[in-house]
């Protein structure tokens, strides 16, 4: 792995993906979805995974979530080997997995109930998380009355309310228009600065990856693998001005070039 930031001590790691491989059997064919892959993520770090379709981003995320098993190697989160899903790891998908029969507030309160929080405390905490994603005014609406961006905000509030140690996000803003997407990116960063959850975020959008991440993991397909890590040294406070800065453009071009040269090297173009 061409890692600029791969020297990290094991005790700093919140997530340690250790020589993990994933194979799927499809009929009499074996698919190597992820070739031996290692990755370390520090507590409170925000990393993005980028790469072409089929490079194993979702597979890797699902294995960290415990939704998929590893074929070999191991994944350790907070010092414990992952064998199944757990409340320490929250997942946010592209499709907002909300309960359609519950109001916005009840959707968020549900996550708090799962943590055993009841009564006034639950109600107050739900209000805080709804304010965090700017949805207080819509707390009594049902999901079907909301736009895509608003539904995704509810999904975020619910994920935050579950207070996972690790937030795993699979293209959560992929289906949104550009304006809503930028707003949600800025909101996500501002919530992350407050909550300091460890985040792994998948995206196809290189600009989104650079804007959000402290480190971008670049992947390639056939077989799925990590080909580079790029440390993003942009200010921790990233607003609109950072989005159009020459520094961001520099990182964006660097990652584009890496993705492009990998495709050339793999004989795909
Ligand atoms: N359940 C499955 N059974 C068989 N093959 C699978 C399964 N899930 C994923 N794959 C294969 O594993 C490889 C990696 O898939 P994965 O969905 O992880 O890629 P991805 O990088 O997330 O792609 P995309 O960007 O299109 O979402 C692909 O070749 C895919 O076809």
Automatic annotation (TrEMBL):
Residues 15-248 form the ABC transporter domain. Pfam families: ABC_tran. The keyword Cell cycle does not apply. InterPro entries: AAA+_ATPase, ABC_transporter-like_ATP-bd, ABC_transporter-like_CS, ABC_transporter_ATP-bind, P-loop_NTPase. GO terms for molecular function: ATP binding; ATP hydrolysis activity. Gene3D superfamilies: P-loop containing nucleotide triphosphate hydrolases (3.40.50.300). The keyword ATP-binding applies. PANTHER family: ALIPHATIC SULFONATES IMPORT ATP-BINDING PROTEIN SSUB, TAURINE IMPORT ATP-BINDING PROTEIN-RELATED. This is ABC transporter domain-containing protein. It comes from Ferroacidibacillus organovorans. The lineage of its organism: Bacteria, Bacillati, Bacillota, Bacilli, Bacillales.
């Amino acid at each position: 792995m061409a890692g600029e930031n791969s020297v990290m001590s094991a005790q700093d790691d919140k997530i340690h993906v250790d020589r993990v491989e994933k194979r799927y059997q499809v009929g009499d064919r074996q698919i190597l979805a992820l070739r031996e892959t290692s990755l370390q993520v520090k507590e409170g770090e925000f990393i993005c995974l980028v790469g072409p379709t089929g490079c194993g981003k979702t597979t890797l995320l699902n294995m960290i979530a415990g939704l998929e098993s590893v074929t070999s190697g191991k994944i350790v989160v907070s010092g414990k080997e992952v064998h199944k899903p757990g409340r320490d790891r929250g997942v946010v998908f592209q499709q907002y997995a909300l309960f359609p029969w519950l109001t916005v507030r009840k959707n968020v309160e549900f996550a708090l109930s799962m943590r055993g929080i009841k009564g006034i405390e639950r109600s107050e905490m739900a209000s805080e998380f709804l304010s965090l994603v700017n949805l207080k005014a819509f707390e009594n609406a049902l999901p079907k009355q909301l736009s895509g961006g608003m539904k995704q905000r509810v999904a975020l509030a619910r994920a935050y309310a579950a207070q996972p140690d690790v937030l795993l996000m699979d293209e959560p803003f992929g289906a949104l228009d550009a304006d809503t997407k930028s707003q949600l990116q800025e909101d996500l960063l501002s919530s992350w600065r407050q909550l300091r959850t460890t985040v792994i975020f998948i995206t196809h959008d290189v600009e989104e990856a650079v804007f959000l991440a402290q480190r971008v993991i670049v992947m390639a397909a056939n077989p799925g693998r990590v080909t580079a890590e790029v440390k993003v040294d942009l200010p921790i406070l990233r607003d609109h001005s950072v989005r159009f800065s020459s520094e961001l453009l520099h990182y964006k071009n660097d990652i584009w070039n890496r993705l492009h040269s990998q495709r050339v090297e793999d004989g795909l173009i």
